[in-house]
Amino acid sequence: MDNQIMEVDIACVGFGPAMGGFLTTLSRAVADEFGETLLPSAVMPGMPMQIVCYERADDIGFGVSGVVTQARAIRESFPDLKPEEIPLAAPVRQEKVYYLLDPIGASRRSSGLKIADRLLKLGKRLLPVRDDAYELPYIPPFLHKKDGMIMSVGQFAQWVGGQLMGTGLVQIWPGTPVAEPLFEGDRVIGVKLADQGVEKDGTPGPNFLPGMHIHAALTVVGDGPVGAVGQFLDRRFGFPEGNQQREWAVGMKAVVELPESCTLPTGSVLHTIGYPEPEIFGFFYVLPNRMASLGIFVPSWFDSPCRTSYRYLQHWMMHPAIWQHIEGGRLVSWGAKTLQESGKRGEPFLVGDGYARIGEGSGCTNVLTGSGVDEAWLSGVQLAEGVIELAKAGQPFNRANLERVYVQRRRESWLEKEARIAKKARDGFQRGFIPGVIGMGLTGFSRGHLHIPAQIRRPREQIRSLEAFCANRVSPEELVTLREEARAKGVPVFDAVMDRLGWPKIPCDGKLLVSHQDVLLMGGKVQAAAGFADHVAFLDPTLCRDCYPQLCAEICSGQAITPGEGGGPPQFDRDKCVHCGACLWNCTRGRLDDPERGNIDFRAGSGGLHSAEN
Amino acid sequence: MSTGFHIVVCGSLVPDPLQTLAPVQGPAGPALKNELMLPAVLDPFAAHSLYEAANLAKKAPGSKIWLVSLGNKAKLQQLMMTVAQKVPFELVPLDGPASGFTDSFEVAAALAGAIDKIPNLDRSRLLLFGGCASASRDAGVTMQMVGERLGILDQFLAVDELKVEENGSLRFLERIEGGRYQVSVCSGPPAMVAWATGNLPEPPNNPQIGMQNMRAIMPALQKAQPAPVATSGITFASVTLPAQQRQTRIVKDASVEEIAKEIVAWIKE
What we know:
The structure holds 2 protein chains of 2 kinds. In chain A, strand 18 and strand 19 (about 280-285) form a beta hairpin. Chain A contains 19 helices and 27 strands. The longest helix of chain A has 21 residues, at about 375-395. By secondary structure, chain A is α+β, with helices and mostly antiparallel strands. Chain A has 4 domains: about 5-80 and about 155-200 and about 205-245 and about 345-420, 3-Layer(bba) Sandwich (FAD/NAD(P)-binding domain); about 85-150 and about 245-340, D-Amino Acid Oxidase, Chain A, domain 2 (2-Layer Sandwich); about 425-455, no CATH class; about 460-600, no CATH class. In chain A, helix 1 (about 15-30) runs parallel beside helix 8. In chain A, about 30% of the residues lie in helices and about 20% in strands. Chain B has a single domain (about 5-240), classed as Rossmann fold. In chain B, the strands form 3 sheets. A 9-stranded mixed β-sheet of chain B has the order 11-10-9-12-8-1-6-7-13, with helices on both faces. Classes of the chains: A alpha+beta, B alpha/beta. The interface of A and B includes residues 158 and 518 of A.
């Protein structure tokens, strides 16, 4: 069966903040206020430019996150923007940063941190230490989100998407994964949608519908840090010299309905460091209507093989400094996502013949200020301005033209200038938590002139073996026993190791603290549409067979990956996958033909989270 | 002489049933917390009837499908981006509440009024489709009332199958008590068919169908007529969600018999 072909003018992949900025700006130039066409279609004469955006998730705004942002670029697009117009958005009212002490004694802390912890506990009468948390008396200006806003990116995406579709000039198709770009030589001529009616391994079934070929003069790629099209381009074209994507994090968050006893005002922004492990950062944003978006980031430079984000999230929630605000509340929604933390260093080739890249996958996240949504939005706006310029002049979307109208614009903007300052801000974390924090401070205060140098290693080169990690705490013999017991149960060993290391069991109450399996049912059950192939594939089973421990199963946010039975490759259940993509960069087996890649392919797939409240 | 059916499907949006739903008392009566923020899907019963309509239209050349939808315009627009990829239809949107906390009589009047105004609708070929019930908390009587207002006397409820016989008559399988079917036959359209779940799977997303549909859907949405549905005649004594109990365990390689036994024991508790 042949692939159907459809012609459009601009094909867009992924609908997030970057694509929101792109489509908002472009749609305003396609027709005037009376509906008269300003930018005509080349493929449908007489019609306005045909702009179609394909989104993998079952609806726009599913499975993203709560953010705090200065919203500089967003406000430029919407000069009269009032946060209250967007559901679950509020202006930033107060910002606090806490260093969390370890109230249970299970956290793995360096000698330096142990000394600091003791000093803080001793001086708690003199210092602002309460509820096992030290409130930093000063927040550096580069971390401030002054005059900014907190919001649910899910609701923001819906708000933007609704306005876009209301114009009738843009089509955004959810539930439509894009498999790969289409090439003619090195020119991108469009995209291929994922095949439907196939078995899990991609074999055509009785209802086989080959993925449609969408031909377009310009393909805009904004499919995020682990998007299939972006990865495909990276593999084909590589990265500019000196650039690489080796730093990642998985962000796991929850939306909680706060108890009436919570006194934090709407607009409160709390950030934490230090607990449950020093490398794990926490955030707590108080949204309108007694809702809060809260969670943690587990970064790739966290060297522990115990990487169960969900369990760490629950331990963090139960820290006295957090628990006092949420006890008695209700978990409304939950989710996870990979963050591309290489920032400017992870920037791929931004343009080529027939394509341009925007958003997080284009390396626009600022790793010093911890800001990405506004930068992503701006990258989309800048591309749209360039596209409008070319379309009006009747010039083609080739590499040279896109370099001139988009890349040049980006280079001259605050996005690039601030990204250059931030480029090496987090290098110190390669050496440990304390050097990392000092390095960020150095970079921030020197405006990028100073940093703590370090070699940026691949994630798998940083993660220690379980035996090394447990040395002097759990005997090798006991580890063997724990491993055998876990293998018999078909679960990762790390939960048992964390128990053994002193982490208490989570007292699940079914309301705020729920089991990992049950959380997949909260706020929109995780599911996958039938008829698509599995999007997580283990490329070389022999590599997986020899892999111990299988960290992909450990990091898996939805318990969709479980250890292989009988020592075989891990098993994948896509009905539980939240598409966070953490398995991709937590694979401990490098490929012989490409050491930057692991043995896991993360492809275009359907399903995932089903909540827009995140 | 023209052939095929003119199939009008009534169906609107409901909050995605996968969401956590919490009833609240709003100023205008009962509502769901954050309902407008929750993603929506086409009412599952109506969705089945739409898929059945598409299947029937494919077999009867010359047929045409309209989807008459009463709901919040902005949410309808978003919903159509998914639904319009599945089957070809023309949208007749009505901008009004779809909360389900409305009077079925009023909803039926709005729907029938909109159907009455569809240009070139051939009543002699009309099949009125919809769900036999709704996931939006209605009383399961709306479709009958729409049919009555349109003067359709042949009405079939909880239908799982419709077969067009060689002589043009329509043969239905209607669900009745005891897990059995009642076989009913009528000579042909017009007829009202309130579908149960039917037998068809959800069609895959087809972008080409989506593009074709949206060229007409977007202008139709922009011209959607307001359809205020009065609720003044109803008083809700109380509103509750079905109680849920959830216990999760991971057990591998359990036999079907073991699972069945455990479920029975759990129900008996």
